[in-house]
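Q: How would the structure tokens look for this protein?
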Amino acid sequence: MEADEDPGEPEQPGSCRSFPPVVPGPSGSAHQICARWGVRITALVMAGFMAMRFKQRGSTQAIGSLSWAQFWVQDPAAYKNSIIEVLKFQGEHACRPQLANTAFQSNISWKDAAGMQSGAHCQQACTWNRGCDGFTWHFEWGCDLMQFPDARTTKVATRYEQGRYSGYACRREASPIPWIYDELQKHTLPSPEHSHPAPEASMLCLMVVRPYTYEIDLAIMQHKLGTGIFQCKHHAIYSNELIVLADGLSTRKFNSSQYAEIGGQWMTALNTDIFMAFWRAVITDGDYLKTGWTVKVDPDTVWFPQRLRPILREQEKAHNTRGAGAYFQNCWQGMHGPIEVFSQHALRALALHSAQCFWVMNNWGNWQWGEDMWIDVCLKDTAASHRIYNTQLLAEDHCNKWEGWSLTPDACLDEDKVAFHPFKDMKNYKHCLDTAQKLNHENSFVMK
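A: Here is the predicted structure in token form.
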């Protein structure tokens, strides 16, 4: 980075941009005063946050995307807009991916209160700051900006530290990117390509994760164990942030705040626009055309692709995947989101009929339902896809429970179930996984 490079952004209130510590200043200098005030501001805000965090710790409802900011922002609309603005900034400035569970090390570092809300905000603060080369962010300790004077000749020193996110300053010249605000456009998917032939019962296995949350840790654990979506030959993880999760594993980005308010008829997450943005990215990427089926699972869903494959093969032999395709109803109430299974033709039908479904449900479903119910009704009533009810697909806290059910790893003893949900704690997730695998003596393997 050139020292005289124009950052291209105005001064930001609360930022130390005017005093980047190019060299350590004497005690009481502008450099040190700014850094001390940043620490004090951070401590004051974090004290309030931590009190609310402990109060909320018992809740399992996740309604936000960018870490702990969801707990203290009073105006949900303003918070959502702030997320969108920082995501647009990242796109406009071609920001590089962040590194999960990684802390940068440097002898020249300072706090910046403007970047404490999330890793994305910290990356933005680094880009605004002329003296910043990289950053490390943590939800408790805030945003540390750094200089790497020897970066051109020496590799930046890092260490593993769970919960830390690190990255580099973005390009300081901005190039505008499109962002969808119109509701009809949000619900309209791209025109799909013609269907492609695919191997029998083949699957594209997908997961959507919220950055800076426990979902990142669950995804990394599943990758390390080679389970869940990583038992599928074709798999991908999507998020609104580009994040390197492990060697050879990075998220794919889609444009959404990933912020969903709780409400509607059933007081669930109103996340239709989030997942329509996700499906837009999936249709655009086109990998779903390589397989006969696309499976979307939540990060806290323990599931077994090898148990699903015979069910898919059965539907193919019955020719239920032709025409507008087939998808699965996994609960007597309808399709629930922990595991969603669509044939290639059904996903194409969703894309082709999405705008029509918006108008059909404009006065009710668009605003009152979550994504799973919206897509279920769209495919069933408008696209006329074949809806298959299968009780083997899912056992969860909200449906398909049996007498004596409790949300413990012992609930995973049913060898007929494909998926179990929700297991948000890594220890219980692993216990559920081990319990089910020992029951059937199932070992990890890569599927077609």
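The longest helix spans residues 30-56.

The chain has twelve helices and 19 strands.

Upvote if useful.
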